[in-house]
Amino acid sequence: MEFRNLRAFVEVVRQSGFTAAARALNSTQSAVSKSVRQIEDEIGAPLLDRLAHGPRLTEAGEIVYRRALRLLAERDDLTAELDALRGLKRGVLRLGLPQLGSGVVFAPLFTRFRQLYPEIEIRLIEHGSARLEEILRMGDIDFAASLMPIAEDFEWIEVRREPMMALLPRQHPLAARSKLKITDLRDSPFILFESGFALNRIIIGACRRSGFEPKIVARSSQIDFIVELANAGLGVAFLPDMLDERRPAGGPVGIALDEPETDWRLALVWRRGAYLSDAARAWLALLQQAHKA
Fold first, then answer.
1. Terminal CA-to-CA distance of the chain, rounded, Å?
2. What is the pTM of this model?
3. How many whole angstroms separate alpha carbon 241 and alpha carbon 228?
4. Which residues on adjacent β-strands are paired with residue 56?
5. What is the pLDDT of residues 241-279, one digit of tens each?
6. Residue 147 and residue 159: Cα distance in Å, rounded?
7. CATH numbers and ranges of domains, the chain
8. Cis before residue 149, ω within 30 degrees of 0?
9. What H or E segment, with its residue span, contains residue 284?
10. C-alpha distance from residue 131 to each of 15, 98, 104, 198 (Å)
């Protein structure tokens, strides 16, 4: 079973289609389709239900996809480790960061890293935490920033902890409060981030522990837009305290959420037992040093 075919199959699943997978691989749709067919011929079973709305994994496809992720990641580790043994310096640090809070947390570290290692290129991708963890498992990045708790297949270091703030319009009946319980907001509509953002998990989890499901009236990936929606009275939004400055003058009121397990806790994670390049180890050392300071 060729790695090239496995990569094509994984990309079809990740991109939810052959056309998008071909673009991601700089290939053609027919070549990607042929690669998937070759795997199916080799194992004697279909991997995808092509009649579904978008390719859907069969039972055999689930097994092959899970194993393919591990095999491709191990191959990348092998290549990197052998390059280091030969004295080859890639000089690339691959980081996956969420859109929420990354600038505040990591920008000073980027500056310091560039001062220490000016020849190392930093490659960044931005997604929600759930998507970043999937990319990390594939070995396409060295580290990802994600909200705690962290899955057992990752190692991690916590880099920031912030209380959660509820954003309410100034005319809201609860706007004068200094703290809020999640149950105080039971009857208020919620404005959340898009589904890939782990912050949603914190808020929805708090609601469910208190015995209710929130009424979600809007979702967005744009912080400023969410703040404006809250200010317009559409519903209550949530941000970590360090982003409170994103509230404009005369904008919504930020009130601390006095609720267990709702702190915004950001960690840098990497695959447990994975080989780390020289650049990755240098970044981790800098982060650990900053964390201890």
1. 49
2. 0.66
3. 17
4. 49
5. 988 666 777 789 999 999 999 999 999 999 998 888 888
6. 10
7. 3-69 (1.10.10.10), 89-160+265-292 (3.40.190.10), 164-262 (3.40.190.10)
8. yes
9. helix 278-292
10. 12, 9, 21, 10
